[in-house]
Design goal:
This protein is an alpha/beta fold. Helices cover about 45% and strands about 20% of the residues.
């Protein structure tokens, strides 16, 4: 018997979990490190397990056997079918598992499963739309480093490029470029080593410096303005007629709001819930389908 439902938002910067009863009563939340599938299947499951354990601890409950839990997961990286299949294959024992992209679970959470569109901006970026007829479409989400425009890693990579040019003397140095240089080791050789080891999470951590300096530095401000334009392009491609409610989600949604075109801001509505809430809705839907199919047999 299923005693608990787990909703997971697994991204490149962190993992967020919501713990609930089958009747929908939410009990607690938990957070842990990155669980995007690009970090490896074992690391992803380990991050999920840690966040789940913290949620039970916050609720003051002893975790039951996994066979008494159903888990819904919105994970970065599931578009790689091999990664997704391997992740499911390594299910540590959950009674039911529903796996989708974090874009879909963000969409479900933002509009309560109803028609609408979202642009999610965190470590990466992606847009998703759900129409009233149940059809859906994704825009962006191509992944780092070739895509994910406006995401933290995209912003961070452009900040590093500016810092490189400042170190070389190709552009004037500034307090902003110096802050990026210092975050990457402080001098050219250290920066080379930093670059050799950097991944999308590492680049995304630099976005906070861009935000910090944007009010005083024209380059930092310009980077965020470019990001805002990219968000608008994603939104327009999702819903060209602008007829559906649009929610901006993810850790960078609020910080980037000041850099979005005014026409886009007029369309934006508050998100009803987050990706982990959407993952709970996903697993509840999956369980309902299983019950219905069982009753029809």
């Amino acid at each position: 018997m299923i005693e608990y439902l787990i909703g997971v938002d697994g991204g490149g910067s962190g993992t967020r979990v919501r713990l609930a009863r089958p009747d929908g009563q939410e009990l607690a939340q938990g957070q842990s490190g990155p669980s995007g599938l690009a970090h490896g299947i074992a690391k992803a499951w380990a991050a999920v397990a840690h966040a789940v354990a913290l949620a039970f601890h916050q609720a003051g409950l002893a975790p039951p056997p996994l066979q008494q839990m159903a888990i819904g997961l919105g994970m970065a990286g599931v578009h790689n079918k091999e990664w997704a299949a391997s992740f499911i294959e390594h299910n540590p024992g959950y009674a039911q598992l529903a796996l989708e992209s974090d874009a879909l679970t963000t969409l479900l959470g933002a509009h309560g499963g109803q028609a609408g569109a979202i642009v999610a901006i965190g470590t990466g970026s992606v847009g998703e739309v759900l129409h009233a007829d149940g059809s859906r479409r994704e825009v962006g989400g191509w992944g780092f480093p070739s895509g994910d425009e406006a995401g933290g890693a995209w912003i961070g990579m452009r900040a590093v490029n500016h810092a490189q040019q400042a170190v070389d003397g190709r552009v004037p140095a500034s307090a902003f470029s110096s802050a990026i240089v210092n975050a990457c080791g402080g001098h050219r050789d250290a920066m080379q080593a930093w670059l050799a080891a950097a991944n999308q999470t590492t680049y995304a951590q630099l976005a906070r410096l861009v935000l910090e300096y944007a009010s005083a530095d024209t380059v930092a401000h310009g980077l965020l303005t470019q990001a805002g334009r990219q968000v608008a392009l994603i939104a327009s491609a999702l819903d060209p007629q602008a007829t559906l409610p649009l929610a901006l989600c993810g850790g960078l949604a609020a910080p980037l709001r000041a850099y979005l075109p005014a026409a886009l801001l007029h369309r934006v509505v508050p998100a009803q819930g987050d990706s982990a809430a959407g993952a709970l809705l996903l697993v509840r839907q999956r369980l309902s389908c299983c019950i219905l199919n069982g009753a029809n047999r």
